[in-house]
Specification:
Layout lengths: L8 H34 L9 H21 L9 H10 L6 H9 L6 H12 L7 H27 L12 H23 L26
Helix pairs in contact: 1-2, 1-7, 2-6, 2-7, 3-6, 4-5, 6-7
């Protein structure tokens, strides 16, 4: 019987960063659709009222975004969140080495050793292994950005706790988190896989607004 291959922790990280990147892409796509929806409504005063449908869209968009963000800030031992991944990288930083990063890079581009070396320095620091202080700093950034979002979810959506002091969230704050979250995901996706991205926003092949082209609802 063939011996079963045991998945390494690094292999587990690779799978998870791809899943996290796909999650980030979904957040970015939802935000893109929401912004296009707002633009579409803003230029057409005839459909501003009644506001019931628009309010429903905004409420569901906000709730879905804050719940998605809340999941990515979870750090339970079984969660697949970005924050949990950063904690594991912080605690096992020696698994990410400069030489392994360069080796993966030059498999497809053998003449780019110097470029790969410089990219590792930018992502991971000056040492031969990843600098755990980078992960610590990124965790602090996520926690600071997501603090009010976590409180809002716990008090208003997940548990309906008594609210002594109302927590106000704005689209600006949600979208700021998405931007910074994307930047952190891109960093660790590049660090672990060697693949670089300027954005994780997927290219849409469908015109979602076509559903609004119908002039009336059939009775």
């Amino acid at each position: 019987m063939a011996k079963r291959k045991i998945k390494s922790q690094y292999d587990d990280w690779l799978e998870r960063i791809v899943d996290i990147s796909n999650h980030a892409a979904g957040l970015l796509r939802r935000r893109e659709i929401f912004r296009e929806y707002q633009d579409m409504i803003n230029v057409n005063a005839k459909i501003h009222r009644p506001p019931d449908f628009h309010n429903w869209v905004k409420m569901n968009y906000a709730d879905s975004i804050v719940m998605s963000i809340r999941r990515e800030l979870d750090y339970g031992p079984t969660t697949g969140s970005l924050r949990r991944l950063l904690e594991e990288i912080r605690d096992n930083y020696e698994l990410i080495t400069r030489q392994a990063y360069i080796n993966r890079w030059v498999e497809d581009a053998p003449d780019e050793t110097a470029i790969a070396d410089a990219c590792f320095t930018e992502l991971a620091g000056n040492g031969s292994t990843f600098d755990p202080r980078i992960a610590i700093a990124d965790i602090k950034v996520l926690d600071a950005l997501g603090s009010d979002i976590k409180k809002y979810v716990n008090k208003n959506i997940a548990h309906r706790e008594k609210i002594n002091k109302p927590i106000k969230l704005t689209y600006e704050k949600l979208h700021k988190f998405i931007d910074d979250y994307e930047a952190v995901v891109i960093k660790y996706h590049s660090l672990l896989t060697g693949d670089g991205y300027s954005t994780l926003l997927p290219v849409s092949i469908n015109n979602w607004k076509i559903i609004f082209h119908e002039s009336r609802i059939e009775k």
